[in-house]
Amino acid sequence: MSDRRVVVLLAGGVGRRAGAGGPKQLVTVGGHTLLEHTIAAVERWAALDEILVVMEAAHLDAARCIAARHSRVTAVIPGGAERADSSRLAVEHLAARLPGRTRVLLHDAARPYVTPAVLARADAALDRADAAVTAVPSVDTVIEVEAAPAGGGSGAGPSAGEAGAGDGRRIAAGTVDTDAAPAGQEPGRRLVGVPPRERMWLVQTPQAFRLDTIVAAHRIIARDVAFTPTDDGSVVRRALPDVPVAVVLGDPANTKVTRPEDLRVARRRLAG
C-alpha cells in the first residue's frame, strides 16, 4: 500500500503587509479567492490524497464554505498565534489519525502558482530523506545586515543625534542616518557580510516531511522559547540536527502574495 500524501495549506495570515483589510487568502482575484486558487492548483497534482486547511479562527466559516466545494479538503482547522504554531497544530491533527510514514507537504496558501511538478519533486525527495524544502538559487547578491548601535553611530563619527542639521550632517561610515534616510531606505542598519552568492538559495513552499519527523521536530521547538522559526525546514534543522533536510529545486514563478504589489500581479496572473 502506497504512502498517503497530504498537503497542508497554511492560511493563518491576517494580510497586514498586503493591505488587504483581512486575510489575503480570502481576497477575491479573478472571480475566486486566493485560497480557492491555491486549492485548485494543489488539486492538479495527481498523487494528492487530501488537503488540510489551517485558517485564522475568526475566518473559519468562510474557509469552510470554500472547502465544501472541494472534495479533497478533508478539514479546516484553526491556526495558532504564529506560523510555527499553525504548522504544529496541523501535523498534530494529522498524527491523531494517520501513520507516521505519511507524506506531508506544508504549503503557503498565499502561493497560488504552485505546479504539480514542484509538488511532485518535493514529494519524491521523501524517497531518500525524511525532510525536504523547495528553493531557488538567488539571482541577486545577498547581504547580511545588522542594526547599527543605538544612536546610529559606530564609533567612526558622531551619531545622527549629535550631527548638525542640514546638508552638513555627518553620518558614521557604513551606517544609514535614521533622520535623513530617503524613502525606501532602511534606517540605522549596516552591511556586515556578503555570503557567496552560489550558496544562497531562496526558500519556498511546499516543504515535505514524513509525518513522524515533523511532529517530533515541532514538539521540541514548542519548548524552545529562544527560537522563532519562519518555515518548517528550519524547525527540523534546529530540533533534529541529525536529520538531513534535502533541498529540491522550486520554481521562480511560485511567488508568495505578501504585499499590495503582489496582489496587483496576482490579478493579472490569475485573471479569468
Automatic annotation (TrEMBL):
Pathway the protein takes part in: Isoprenoid biosynthesis; isopentenyl diphosphate biosynthesis via DXP pathway; isopentenyl diphosphate from 1-deoxy-D-xylulose 5-phosphate: step 2/6
Record GO terms (molecular function): 2-C-methyl-D-erythritol 4-phosphate cytidylyltransferase activity
Keyword annotations of the record: Isoprene biosynthesis, Nucleotidyltransferase, Transferase
Biased composition (Gly residues): 150-166
Enzyme Commission designation: 2.7.7.60
Alphabetical list of InterPro entries matching this protein: IspD, IspD/TarI, IspD/TarI_cytidylyltransf_bact, Nucleotide-diphossugar_trans
Residues marked Positions MEP for the nucleophilic attack (site): 197, 256
Gene3D superfamilies reported in the protein's UniProt record: Spore Coat Polysaccharide Biosynthesis Protein SpsA, Chain A
A Pfam cross-reference name: IspD
Reactions this protein catalyses: 2-C-methyl-D-erythritol 4-phosphate + CTP + H(+) = 4-CDP-2-C-methyl-D-erythritol + diphosphate
Site (Transition state stabilizer): 17, 24
One Gene Ontology biological process: isopentenyl diphosphate biosynthetic process, methylerythritol 4-phosphate pathway
Annotated segments matching region Disordered: 148-168
Recorded family membership: Belongs to the IspD/TarI cytidylyltransferase family. IspD subfamily.
HAMAP family: IspD
General function of this protein: Catalyzes the formation of 4-diphosphocytidyl-2-C-methyl-D-erythritol from CTP and 2-C-methyl-D-erythritol 4-phosphate (MEP).
Protein name, as recorded: 2-C-methyl-D-erythritol 4-phosphate cytidylyltransferase
Organism for this UniProt entry: Pseudoclavibacter caeni
